[in-house]
Amino acid sequence: MARFALSVVVLMLAAIALTEGLRGVGPKKCCFRFNDKQISKEKVVGYMKTSQRCSNPAILMTTKAGRQLCVRPSEPWVKELITYLNNKNTSGQTNL
Asked: Is the alpha carbon torsion for 41, 43, 48, 53 positive or negative?
């Protein structure tokens, strides 16, 4: 009986380890629908690129309200907004 109980515990731990390990595989966030309206630069606080493993290349824009919007990196207004955010972040840093 003890061997059976031990076998069940070992199988349960193996199953848990396997399912936890699979969660880490693959991108955390991908975009399948895109916001086509231009976003005001005053509303955006940051951005990040989605993983290269996503089927659609995208940029996630984070707004002051905490929302994340998917936009196409090829759009000219998106490129301008990224340049603006990069310049804003580098000019705000001070060297001590």
From this structure: negative
pTM for the whole structure: 0.64
pLDDT at 63: 94
65: phi then psi, degrees, rounded to nearest 5: -80, -5
Query: Is 49 in a helix, a strand, or coil?
Result: strand
Residue 39 burial by Cβ neighbours in a 10 Å radius (0-12, 13-18, 19+): middle
Local confidence band at 69 (pLDDT 50, 70, 90 cut-offs): very high
Ordered by where they begin, the domains of the chain are 29-91 (2.40.50.40)
